[in-house]
């Protein structure tokens, strides 16, 4: 998921072409992340130091970490951190771009630095999650002080990602933020869930993304936000919520939902504790509101 | 309107679902298809059209599908009503079966499921 978000960034900045990005994403599926890329990202080593170790490896039969420690570039502790990162699979896209000769080490470092600075990657609100990591999503909600519903919201978002892949045929990158203000959207589809747990759920988007989402879900030629488009986005939310209710029911929690509604130029009044789950797609972004 | 054609009542508040169902049924046979967009009109159109088969959503405005089903059963006890909902919770399944539904299909439905039902009934 991280790699896709970083990929969108590189694409938007014109640092890679769509063809290069597609090739790198394809290539990264079959590769392992090299420690040199991790070391640069972590700020443990410079690109020149990494190149030096790589050149040494051509002459000496030693591992990257071993040589880097011998030369005093990293410690055992740093190496352990790097090995953990390697298992998490982050930065795979950067590695792929280097392997495919689209980026040098220096270019990758520069792009990563800009990316982190522009997105405040170290800040809490930048929470890009992996689609299969419910625990990570739950922790994000907890980090916002959500105690009662963190696990439920996590289940909801995890299922949402699966349903986007299943019904909209795209692989979303998801970013979770606490909603600080009211939100006004060109289009808003919403549905209330009630029972032991009460949730407001909504899809907010601008017209272009609304129409694309509608067309993809309906698998119909939809070119404007007409009645069919509204029905499509509303039904996507209804379908997702229905499946969520079935899952909850299987876990012993019976919930009901109200009919979905779709409105144009709608302002969602923040009740004080609400979240926006931004779904970044290859064709744009829409927001899921949870409150 | 051909009087010999079986009548199928499709009840769902989503225009998209009704369109998809109409497209599907049209491929499966020559039916008189009647559409209802909420629970109240589902019951009214049921009474007016005496359908041979009903596809009935549960979460609808003005009257939910379970209530609509109960009223339909009071009018015609042996009618075939297939519940078609995204919300196949234990509560809904139990309520639908107790109210007399013939079957329950969890959305999203496949054409083969509709075909199986239509072939069994007609």
Set down the secondary structure blueprint.
The complex is a heterodimer of chains A (291) and B (122).
Chain A: H1 2-12, H2 18-28, H3 35-42, H4 47-59, H5 64-70, H6 76-88, H7 92-99, H8 105-119, E1 128-129, H9 134-143, H10 150-168, E2 173-178, E3 183-195, E4 199-205, H11 207-218, H12 227-250, E5 255-257, E6 261-268, E7 275-281, E8 284-290
Antiparallel strand pairs in A: 1-2, 2-7, 3-4, 3-5, 3-6, 4-8, 7-8
Helix pairs in contact in A: 2-7, 3-4, 3-6, 9-10, 10-12, 11-12
Chain B: E1 7-11, H1 15-28, E2 32-36, H2 39-49, E3 53-56, H3 65-75, E4 80-85, H4 90-99, E5 103-106, H5 111-121
Parallel strand pairs in B: 1-2, 1-3, 3-4, 4-5
Helix pairs in contact in B: 2-3, 3-4
Summarize the structure.
The complex is a heterodimer of chains A (291) and B (122). In chain A, strand 7 and strand 8 (284-290) form a beta hairpin. Chain A has helices at 2-12, 18-28, 35-42, 47-59, 64-70, 76-88, 92-99, 105-119, 134-143, 150-168, 207-218, 227-250, and strands at residues 128-129, 173-178, 183-195, 199-205, 255-257, 261-268, 275-281, 284-290.
Task: Explain what the structure shows.
The complex is a heterodimer of chains A (291) and B (122). Chain A has 291 residues and is α+β, with helices and mostly antiparallel strands. Chain A folds into two domains: 2-119, no CATH class; 128-290, 3-Layer(aba) Sandwich (Chemotaxis protein chec), CATH 3.40.1550.10. Helix content of chain A is 52%, strand content 18%. In chain A, strands 1, 2, 3, 4, 5, 6, 7 and 8 form an eight-stranded antiparallel beta sheet that branches. In chain A, a hairpin with a 3-residue loop joins strand 3 (183-195) and strand 4. In chain A, helix 2 (18-28) packs across helix 7, helix 3 (35-42) runs antiparallel to helix 4 (47-59) and helix 9 (134-143) packs across helix 10. Chain A is elongated, with a radius of gyration of 22 Å. With 122 residues, chain B is an alpha/beta fold. Chain B has one domain (7-121): Rossmann fold (3-Layer(aba) Sandwich). In chain B, 47% of the residues lie in helices and 20% in strands. In chain B, strand 3, helix 3 and strand 4 (80-85) form a beta-alpha-beta unit. In chain B, helix 2 runs parallel beside helix 3 (65-75) and helix 3 runs parallel beside helix 4 (90-99). The model of chain B has no long low-confidence stretch (mean pLDDT 94). Chain A binds chain B through residues 167, 218, 220, 227-228, 230-232, 234-235, 238-239, 241-243, 245-246, 248-250, 254-260, and chain B through 13-17, 19, 59-61, 85-91, 106-108.
